[in-house]
Amino acid sequence: xxxxxxxxxxxxxxxxxxxxxxxxxxxxxxxxxxxxxxxxxxxxxxxxxxxxxxxxxxxxxxxxxxxxxxxxxxxxxxxxxxxxxxxxxxxxxxxxxxxxxxxxxxxxxxxxxxxxxxxxxxxxxxxxxxxxxxxxxxxxxxxxxxxxxxxxxxxxxxxxxxxxxxxxxxxxxxxxxxxxxxxxxxxxxxxxxxxxxxxxxxxxxxxxxxxxxxxxxxxxxxxxxxxxxxxxxxxxxxxxx
Amino acid sequence: xxxxxxxxxxxxxxxxxxxxxxxxxxxxxxxxxxxxxxxxxxxxxxxxxxxxxxxxxxxxxxxxxxxxxxxxxxxxxxxxxxxxxxxxxxxxxxxxxxxxxxxxxxxxxxxxxxxxxxxxxxxxxxxxxxxxxxxxxxxxxxxxxxxxxxxxxxxxxxxxxxxxxxxxxxxxxxxxxxxxxxxxxxxxxxxxxxxxxxxxxxxxxxxxxxxxxxxxxxxxxxxxxxxxxxxxxxxxxxxx
Lengths: 241, 240
Description:
The complex is a heterodimer of chains A (241) and B (240).
Chain A: H1 5-12, H2 15-46, H3 52-66, H4 69-83, H5 94-120, H6 123-131, H7 136-166, H8 178-189, H9 192-218, H10 226-238
Helix pairs in contact in A: 1-9, 2-5, 2-7, 2-8, 3-5, 4-5, 5-7, 6-7, 7-9, 8-9
Chain B: E1 2-11, E2 14-24, E3 29-33, H1 40-47, E4 55-60, E5 63-64, H2 71-77, E6 78-81, H3 93-103, H4 109-122, H5 138-150, E7 156-160, H6 168-183, E8 187-191, H7 195-201, E9 204-209, E10 212-217, H8 219-224, H9 229-238
Parallel strand pairs in B: 3-8, 3-9, 6-7, 7-8
Antiparallel strand pairs in B: 1-2, 1-4, 4-5, 9-10
Helix pairs in contact in B: 3-4, 3-5, 4-5, 5-6
């Protein structure tokens, strides 16, 4: 067996790999946040009455789910500058291209998650909000979204993890994320196991940290469980609300 | 206070309300009863514009119900209590009550809280104010829902089968609270099958069938000598 631990440890905390992991994480967070921002209003419209806008959104979702992510990345990076000269300039970096492509791609999936989460909230909640005279934006902000978030969180976290791994596709447009760095080192030294292990370690660290974060956020939803609501109420009471 | 004139409402091809007219004076208590699907719930949901009516006129405390600019005003004039309580599960009892007063900006946080505590005391549930809805029984939840509606200082209260989802032993506590509210002079419309409540509290009973008002009478007349065959048949069904 040939596994050189010193190569592994050295690479694990080396700047190129750290930078690659940070780029991977940064790109994922940026793209997913953008996707959620795009998806939220679209989901609210989809949750409403039928309209022309709703048909357009359905078409948008269908389109971006149908096109392979790799094709979208290549299109944004290679074809967009051909069509619009403005993208030929210096500021249009691989990171920006990947951010745009992955945001649009992810937003289509996130629309569906948010829409189903909103429709999972009991219909009586909207009626109750209307009946006490709240305007629509307040009903969504204070009644619908906090409850929909509980439903949306687990599939959203799934999406985040999928997206984290999809960023490796950006190696094809020469973004120096974790997998690109790994490939470069492997190609240079042929020490496959050491460098693959480094990449694996960083992906595991990132995903497990996020799962921990998810657990923390889910503690806020203890109101939905008969057994745990009492503990939450007690905690809040002892803190004086 | 509330006036409906020739109100019609359709759900697709289903004609839910047919030329419904009804006048309700300030302080009056009206019980609406009738078989399921007769339009009772649709009628009171039209009063606060939860359901838009298709034709006819509805007025509430001088406001035209359905006029876009007055929708929120109309809803703040009428408090509503639902069959399934519809408390906000992610907020505590107290937060349920202060959400709307705070967001509509009429009062400070402290005033909103004080007012909520007053109303929670009036529905005899102040001691549960810090709990989440899921921790309460159905009867308790419905009393919180009444307090939440009262916190907007409505001039009219609409009750949509408020005891239908309750276990029998919890019906009494909710009806008691509603009775107290009635005795304080609140204008009330109540869709219910609780005929004991209707007898005790209502000034008039409205009997509906197939989207129409079939009969309007004081409870003593209505229960002793219903005029229509349909009402007689209905009463003989529910008295079993």
